Structure formats: structure tokens, C-alpha cells
């Protein structure tokens, strides 16, 4: 999985693990050995991948511990007040036109999560600022801990099948290079079944997080053929279409009223590349499969997984062998190695996330992650509502790059 290339040896240029050893092989657990090249002395080293900016969306059902709010606006204001007192810069997105600040947390209602006003519980989302993944890791981890500690102290946080933890990422430069996006797309397809082992069963068949692997373009293809399809793309729009293509005849398509044969892109997949339709590499890629998170450790673990996987996927040199079956154990070793490589503090959340893995046994005659045969009336309606819902993460991204 790591990206290795041969470059001329320079003093102080070769990096090794913090314990002084070479990184373990992702498949055998053995150590790589450098070999001397003729003509020019060259050593094997990993080319440093890009750093990333990320934004987290937390979708939860929230109720105040002390006040019985009859409307979501009162709950939003109380959340904002407590976060402000805790030193967390924030604002409420009270309308579709309210300005959002990419350097503050945003509080808003969430249309895909059912609310229960009689019980004073409301579907909410909190959207983080855009933060640097590896350059300021201590800062963002502390920020997330403060937010979740404050929320749990003053509010009851619960989750439903519609709740989520979405992680949006973009290279720190503010835009993607096409090869970087292709590298992440390959990892998304290749490791899909591995990542399925880390989420509850309902997030493996959610209408909000469908399979990228089992869509129109990739369903009947082998993994090497899937990689070839990705390699053949010459535009970000083409890549997004392959990763997020939705059939008009699917339950999602029918719910959204698509005309027969009018297939379309939709973001409700495990990995959404629809954000790259911003053009010229601008936009975010979002990992949408994780369930709702009520603790800082859960949120940090998912951010670390996505950030480390993106770094491994987007570094120079490739490295995946599509003809081989992926293993979560090997992936986990390389994610933890990547966290160590970029000096990520407090790696226990990632370790705990990997430990909770449960093997997925496919039901005979079914295809994992395909759009459900039928969706509920409630899901049908919420898919329609979501079309007109504001994408706060992308709004923040646009303001970030134009600031």
C-alpha cells in the first residue's frame, strides 16, 4: 500500500520509522531492504504525499438535558451558547442564505434524520471548520474533544440509522490533481469490503451510503478492470460519474423522480466524488459511510482513518495490486504506520476503530451495498428533501478557497 519510488540518495533525505526500522511489508510483515542500483546510487524511500484539509459533519439526534425545546431553533441557540462558553468559535446556519465561516463550527438542522419534537429531540448536524490533518493534528484533536465533551455534558446525544459521521477532504493546496483523485478512487473500490467490517450492518446497506463498487460502471467488472476504468478517465467530472452513477430505475432514482433512462450522479454513496464537479480539481471528496458518533474518540478515529488512507492513496507511485484480495489486517498496519509517519498524536482512536472490526459474511444471492430493493416512505421523502438541502461543507470549502 505505501508509495515507494527510487530517487538519488541525499544526506538526511531518507526517512525511516520513528523506531529507526524500515516499515513492515503490508502483506508479509517483513522489512523492506534497500538495494544498490548500478550507475547511480539510489535508495528506496517513500515520496511524501500531500497534506490534507478536512471537515467533519456530525449527524445526531440531540436533546437538551435541562430545557424542553419545542422547536429546533431553541436547541440550536443553546448548543451555540455552550460551545461559545467552552471557547469553540461557532455560528448557527438558521437559513439557506446565512453565511458560513470555514474557520468555525456550524450548527444546523438535518433533514435526513427524523426529529421527535414531542420528546424534544431533533435531528441536527454540526459541521467543523476546515482543519489541517497532519500539520496541526494536536489542535484539531483537542478541538473535537472539547466539542464532544461540551455536547455530552449539556445534551443527550443519540443515534439512529440515519445518523452519520461524514469526512470531507481536499489536499492542503485547495484543489486535487487528477492522479490524486484517481488514487483515492482506486482505494475506495479496493478496500470497500474491508471498511464494511468497521461499520454496523445498517451502514452497509444504507440508502445514504451505497456501494461505489457495485454501481452501474463497476458491478460486472473485475478489480483490475475497475482500475482500468478509473485510469481511462481524463476529467474530474468523468471520474465522479463513474464513482457515483445512479440508475434512474433504482429505488433512489425512482424516489427522486428520474425519467426512464435518465441516469444521474448522486452523492449518497460510501465515497462521494460529486464535489469534484466544481471543476478543475476544485471540490471535496467525502467518506459518508461511518455511523453517527457520540464520542470524541469515535470521531477522531474516523478522521485518522480517512486522512491516513488519503495520504497512502495519493502519494506518488501507486502500490495497490488489484488482482490480490485486500485484507483489513494489512490495511490497518499501513494506516497505523502512516499515522506514525506523519507524527499523529494519540493514535489509540484509530487502533480502537480497527479492533472493532466484524467480518462480513455476504448473504447468498445478494450483492453487498447495492441500492435496496425497496426503501421506506420516510426515506423516499427525505431523499427528495435532501436535494434542496444546503451542503454546508461545500459552502465552507468555497469560502475557504476564495478568502
Automatic annotation (TrEMBL):
<feature type="compositionally biased region" description="Basic and acidic residues">
    <location>
        <begin position="11"/>
        <end position="20"/>
    </location>
</feature>
<dbReference type="Pfam" id="PF12224">
    <property type="entry name" value="Amidoligase_2"/>
</dbReference>
<feature type="region of interest" description="Disordered">
    <location>
        <begin position="1"/>
        <end position="46"/>
    </location>
</feature>
<dbReference type="InterPro" id="IPR022025">
    <property type="entry name" value="Amidoligase_2"/>
</dbReference>
<feature type="compositionally biased region" description="Basic residues">
    <location>
        <begin position="29"/>
        <end position="43"/>
    </location>
</feature>
<protein>
    <recommendedName>
        <fullName>Amidoligase enzyme</fullName>
    </recommendedName>
</protein>
